[in-house]
Protein 1
Amino acid sequence: MPTLNVQNLPGATSLEVSPGATLLATLQACGHDWMHACGAKGRCTTCRIEVVSGQEHLTPPTDAELRYHLAGRLQPHERLTCQARLPAGEVTGLVPRATRLPHVRYQ
Ligand code: FES
């Protein structure tokens, strides 16, 4: 089963990603709060994740992500969790400092 790890989010290691599910949907299904200001429509970038390893396992960037990459609002190692899916393999990432939620205790 594809696996997502978020190093600085307590309890967010070895999350099983269901086929077709976005990373955001996976995090929410596992009970984790994650910033997503536009409601997962690919219109904000607040749901981004810094990918530490396994980027090659994610689905290719969507048109929305490509636009943000070109505009410099997403770094090459960042993906939108509302857009990216993980068909196989393992991805490890971090919650960026700028999009952390005030009530969550990050590591
Ligand atoms: S929630 Fe806005 S781009 Fe993902």
Protein 2
Amino acid sequence: MDDRYDVVIIGSGLGGLLCGAILGKNGYRVAVLEKNAQIGGCLQSYTRDGGVFDTGVHYIGGLAEGQTLHKIFSYVGLMQHLKLKRLDRDGFDVIQIGDVRNEFPYAQSYELFVEMLARSFPHERAGIESYCEKIRSVCSRFPLYNLINGDFMDKVDMLDSNARETIDSCVSDPLLRDVLAGNNCLYAGVAGKTPFYIHALILNSYIESAWHCEGGGMQIATLLGEVIEAAGGTIFRRAEVSKIIVANGEASRVLTKDNREFAGKWFISDLHPVITIALAQTDVFRKAYIHRISGFENTCGAFIMNVVFHESAFPFRNHNIYYYSKPEHIWNGIDYEPDQWPNHYALFLTEGKDGFARSASIMCYMRYSECRPWAETFNTGSRPGARGDDYEAFKEEKASKLFDFLGQQYPGFRALVKAYHTLTPLTYRDHTGTPEGSLYGILRDYREPLRTFIPARTKIPNLFLTGQNLNLHGVLGVSVSAIVTCGELLGNDFLLDEIRNS
Ligand SMILES: Cc1cc2nc3c(=O)[nH]c(=O)nc-3n(C[C@H](O)[C@H](O)[C@H](O)COP(=O)(O)OP(=O)(O)OC[C@H]3O[C@@H](n4cnc5c(N)ncnc54)[C@H](O)[C@@H]3O)c2cc1C
């Protein structure tokens, strides 16, 4: 009897879990190996001091009926169980630059999006329309994003436009140009690098519809785990893969740190490609390939302060806020001088009682280099470790600066807060295994779009990649990547038909 799993999946982030659910649904016997005690990776949420905090999913786009993520989540049986709240239709994101009293909303649906921004920029209505048209036209060229089987060549000439230049070409009002790039933190955009298609695919999904997971994004991981187990799959927690054994050019099994072995016919890695290659340690990967992949720059990290408010202290708003003290920080927020930090934040609120917020996550960019003194430390829930008093002091100093910064826009902000704690790029590095705690994995560069193109197939014919480094990060991007990966086993036409008809 063949006691191998059909598919061994390394990592239980959204990518790994969704592959497990799709393949399980199609009769494959799946094992998912997760290094942490909890599954989910960036989907994880946790409760602290009475607040529920998301680690990496504050809001999701494309979940209304008929939209791409709705179809994918329906196919795996998730959609009817999700507890979602739609963000404000007339402004799911509000951009503030310089003065918080200047609010520029991004509305849901293209008509309303144009309408709301044209109220502040009536002279630019045609420009805003052409910006929307550009976004839609780019999105229409990415077949899988629209659940259509297509060719890589369909989108190839969409890959080499720069986000900032393209936005600037649509409108001429300098403030509106900044406003249109205002939720840059969603993709950690860099002025001279980020391609327009990244901006377009992400913005489009939220303009279509924008949702908050009530009670946290962890529900997605829990539900996917249930789907996998109901289909006969097994999830192994605290199973950190330390090696992928390759024999005769094929992967045969993986070893975990605690010396367990999992044999499989196929293997899928939801890890960063650099980590996957390091785990495989094989000369099947050519040196030039390893060198190229290892040389990729990753998106920056973030400092996150999670606060719980006193009762009836901070008014709840059913939208996210992106604030920049100066317009230049929209595109160069990561190039801060440490003594001038922070210069921006993204604020995500959760609802409390009587129109007030219970808690908030406040996120701003942080370079990994600031955390380098503690690079040798490690700390997660399943492998606790102390980073030292100096690290705690570093975090406290950053929290204090962020409180002061928030206090400039919301006088007395700190006094409204009952409890808080902070996360740094080190938290993310240790929790998800992402190099240097990068927010969204590989940074794409419009000048060399094919250099950072990562296919699902690898040189090892039965080892595939999935997750945020394939095409696009985010819940929608990773879900589309899972389809790409599963399509390698099931056939793209078959899988897309199944999803469209489900
Ligand atoms: C701060 C932050 C905010 C975000 N906000 C949003 C948002 O609002 N909306 C949105 O759509 N997206 C958001 N994202 C992006 C989104 O969360 C991610 O792109 C997506 O969840 C990544 O999924 P993944 O499957 O690629 O990998 P991950 O979530 O990184 O999962 C990888 C998994 O592999 C496990 N692992 C690592 N190494 C090993 C090993 N050796 N053995 C076994 N397991 C291992 C990890 O523990 C982890 O569980 C955010 C991300 C961050 C960091």
